[in-house]
Amino acid sequence: MAVLGHRSFLVLAVGTLLGFALTLTTLLTYLMPSAVSSLKVFYAAALIGGIAQVPVAIWGVAWLFRSYGQLQSRSAALLPDASPQRTTE
């Protein structure tokens, strides 16, 4: 896993690409409706990708936070506590 880095970045990149596909398709349909009217299948595929983007993005963010939490707990076990200690007077 250390060689690949965080796999959650790959999941987030896929979600971003799905969102870009929906955005570009919608923008193309808005700017040139006559040119895109024959590509209804392409528009439907981009819409399905845009709908799939939401759970992929949520999963990617949750995975990223979980991996950072694991990294923090491993580093806390290895490094001494450098936080200032409260003293009672």
Please, could you describe this protein's structure?
The protein has helices spanning 7-31, 33-36, 40-78. It has 89 residues and is mostly helical. It has one domain. α1 packs antiparallel against α3. It is rod-shaped.
State the main characteristics.
single chain, 89 residues, mainly alpha
DSSP strand tally: 0
Given the C-alpha coordinates, what overall shape results? rod-shaped
- Our count of domains comes out at 1
**Mean model confidence by pLDDT:** 77
Percentage of β-strand residues:
under 5%
Q: Helical segment tally? A: 3
Element pattern in H and E:
HHH
What structural class do helix, strand and pairing data support? mainly alpha
Low-confidence stretches: none
Main β-sheet description? none
Overall radius of gyration: 22 Å
Report the end-to-end length measured between terminal Cα atoms: 48 Å
Helix content: over 70%
Summarize the structure.
The chain is mainly alpha-helical and 89 residues long.
Helix-strand layout with pairing:
Blueprint: H1 7-31, H2 33-36, H3 40-78
